[in-house]
Amino acid sequence: MRTPLIIVAFIVLLAMFGPMLLPWGHAQIDWDSVRAGLMSDGHILGTDDLGRDRLARLLVGTRITMSVALAAALVALVIGVIWGAVAGWVGGRTDEVMMRIVDGLYALPFMFIVILLMVVFGRSILLVFIGIGAVEWLTMARVVRGEVMALKSRPFVLAAEAAGTPGPRILLRHILPNIAPVAIAYLMLTVPQVVMVESFLSFLGLGVQEPLTSLGILVNEGAAEMDVNPAALILPGLVLVTVIICLTLAGERWRDRLTGTGRAARMAPDQ
Amino acid sequence: MSIFALSNYSVMIGDKRIVDNLSLDIDAGQIVALAGASGSGKSMTAMTPFGLSAGHGEGSAMLDGAQLTGLAEHRMARLRAAKTGFIFQQPLTAMTPHRTVRQHVEEAAMQAGGARPSKADLIAMLGRVGLTDPASKLRQFPHRLSGGERQRVLIACATAHQPKLLIADEPTSALDASLRRDIMDLLTGLCREDGMAMLLVSHDLASVERDADQLLLLQEGRVEEQGAAAAIAAAPASEYGRILMAATPRMSEPMPALETPGEPLLEARDLHVRFKKPGWRSGHIDAVRDASFTLARGETLAIVGGSGSGKSTLGRAVAGLGPVTGGEIFWKREPLPPRGKRTRAHRGLMQPVFQDPVASLNPRWQVADIIAEPALQLHGLRPDADQLTQLLDEVGLTADYAQRRAITLSGGQAQRVAIARALIAEPAMLLLDEATSSLDPLVAQGVSQLFSRLQKSRGLSMLLITHDLALARRCAHRIAVMQDGEIVECAPRDILFDAPQSQATKKLIAASV
User: From the list A159, A161, A178, which residue is nearest B421 (CB)?
Assistant: First the structure.
């Protein structure tokens, strides 16, 4: 039942501590063995065409991809929860305007905009963040708004109002703690989406800059030499797919358990 | 002739005995009722013999000469389809939303292998269950029908194949008080006319004693009392029977004396609440129209009406928990500001107790924190352990409840915590919004006794919002009857019952037992 989470935890631990155990850094060039094969000269996965250790690069790439994803998902969580909670709590015209803004952002071809921004301002990891963050919070805001509206008319919230509790405090103490589980479930679903987007941007050469690397860059590099050295493509691809599938499975299971069956089908379509 | 008989019948779930050693016998045209508190096993007794519950039966269950216990599922299904009809509590969820009334009734009529009924037959069936304009109802979908109409359609479905036995599981408890009588009269009439036997499951004792021939009182799976319904109602032999009979307020009981109220506290003048219709539809709904009333210290004013009459909206408007679009509210002749502008001092004057006790407590909080919140907000003081214990004691709970989480409480316990939370604010008035109607009869009686005790000891005024006229008759000094957002009549209870003026009041009194 918990297998997906255990697999992800294993990959994360490996990406965090693995590089410390290796004699090679991810940007360090071994002049003696350029393009070494598997298990040769102390390089477990060999080296790339610049003589850099492939295993070190894979672990660091995983680490970068995962941290970008987690950070962007957290940003999405914060913006989404605040936006959704305010819209749902205040209601009325404010709610209308705020949610129409969300609808408008949904309609933008955001990948195209990120690429344009990069062309204009040059490549930077900050732009990747902004591009991803600007889109991923939308679903979160919708989910949170719905939950807040449902809780707002519950008797315990009315009782708190009757007890003289001020509005912001009701939101903070009574409503947000009760939507936290659902928000966290959607956080878990956002992470794999961001992994996907970040890898895609990096694959296009728009993401992280050398000598840093990410799973998307590794897949891109691997694709160039896949007929000579298929492992260079397969390994980062495998890590990417495993992380995305496992996190999605875990997130969906958690969401379904919290929100009951059938709700999942009615949620907004993902980007 | 016996249609359905259970003898020495027990219901087991796994190794656990849910219902123990029950015997009953229903003849054609006879009605037998199973009554008791929730969890007493009355629904299990009605459903298990037909393979429709999680439990399995032991002992003999005879339906029209066939033994049901141990019957293979496919034979059981055929027997069910041919000889029984079922009516459930929730009329909406018992219908398939995308199928029309005609499809429902046709399917029911053909379930025992009968021929497809003609349109004239279908119209006759719907006419028989008291639906007006049955021909146009045939084409309609369930969501277009009112709750009462849906239940009538379901009764038509349950009887369309002319079953020998009708099983009705709380057929009226999801319906409006004024509809209950009509539906029960329809059911009993059909039974008597067609010679159907009926097994009626109900917690509404007052209604059961009038409709049923035989009555079984169940407590935790045991039969406490069994016999002719009228005899049990008149003079219960068992202790449980006496408690249960006394718990349900009824119209025939003498009106208990009440304390004389003091000076006027609250006055509502021409209150108006208007909602915009949802979605893109234009127009408004006037939920409350020009409602005026007064409430004195130590007085209970009951606001009685059917569902959708605006009584809850009115209560919330007064307490500053819902919108107000017109009119004024005064407290000791001082005007009370609208919802958003009420200060803590205003909030402390009145406290609400709601219908659903479990939903009125924040599920993640401890009882101590829940009760402390109003004190903290209104008086800036956190109550100490002694105060908490004293308060819990006042509402009939022990001190160790302070550490419990809200989700671990039963309905009755949760309602007592909600009352303690209301009391700590030291209000002058309680808004009781159907505060006892989702509770079991016995628990409800305990809670309403608590209310009258508090009224005596603390001199509390109460705005009692309820659909139960008998409860209002028992507790309230004055009764206001609401219909379609208007207070159609407001009078002291003796006058209201002796000489009702409006049509709505007369109808409510006639429908109540």
Answer: A159
Q: In what order do the strands lie in the sheet with B350-353?
A: B350-353, B429-433, B461-466, B300-305, B478-483, B486-492
CB nearest to A165's CB, from B351, B361, B373 = B373
Q: Does residue B218 sit in the same domain as residue B291?
A: no
Residue B128 contacts A where some CB pair is shorter than 8 Å: no
Residues of the domain holding B185: 2-246
Per the structure, how many domains does chain B have? 2
Flag whether B394 is in a domain.
no
Contact in structure between A195 and A244 (CB atoms under 8 Å): yes
- Helix, strand, coil % (nearest 5) of chain B? 40, 25, 35
Q: pLDDT tens digits, chain A, 271 residues: what are they?
A: 678 888 888 888 888 888 777 777 777 777 777 677 776 777 777 777 777 888 888 888 888 888 888 888 888 889 999 999 999 999 888 999 999 999 988 888 877 877 787 778 777 777 777 777 777 889 899 999 999 998 988 899 999 999 989 988 999 989 998 888 888 888 888 888 888 888 788 777 777 777 788 888 888 888 888 887 888 888 888 888 898 888 888 888 877 776 554 333 333 333 3
Domains and CATH numbers, chain A: 3-266 (1.10.3720.10)
* Cβ-count burial A119-135 (b if 16+ within 10 Å, e if not): eeeeeebebbbebbbbb
- Quick one: closest CA in A to B354, which residue? A155
Contacts 24+ apart (CB under 8 A), B252-255: B252/B513, B253/B474, B255/B473, B255/B474, B255/B493, B255/B494
Give the span between the Cα atoms of B103 and B82, in whole angstroms.
19
Rounded distance between C-alpha atoms, residue A130 and residue A132, angstroms? 6
B201 and B276: one domain? no
Tokens 């008791």 locate to: B36
Q: Which residues of B touch A155 (CB under 8 A)?
A: 352, 354-356, 359-360
* pTM (2 d.p.): 0.76
Tell me which chain A residues have a C-beta less than 8 angstroms from the C-beta of B344: 164
Residues B449 and B475 in one domain: yes
Domain shared by B73 and B38, yes or no = yes
B288 and B240 co-located in one domain: no
Q: Is the peptide bond before A211 cis (omega within 30 degrees of 0)?
A: yes
Run of H or E residues at B328: strand B326-331
Gap between the Cα atoms of B467 and B206, Å rounded = 15
Closest CB to B362 among A156, A162, A164: A156
Are B198 and B319 part of one and the same domain?
Answer: no
- Tell me, what CATH number does B438's domain have? 3.40.50.300
**Final residue of a domain: which of B183, B214, B246?**
B246
DSSP output for B441-454: HHHHHHHHHHHHHH
Instruction: Assess A177–B contact: CB distance below 8 Å, yes or no.
Output: yes
Chain A nearest-CA distance from B398, in A, is 22
- Helix (H) or strand (E) holding A177, with range, is helix A176-203
Residue B437 in tokens: 């109607």
Phi-psi region of A269 (alpha: psi -120 to 50; beta: other; left: phi over 0): beta
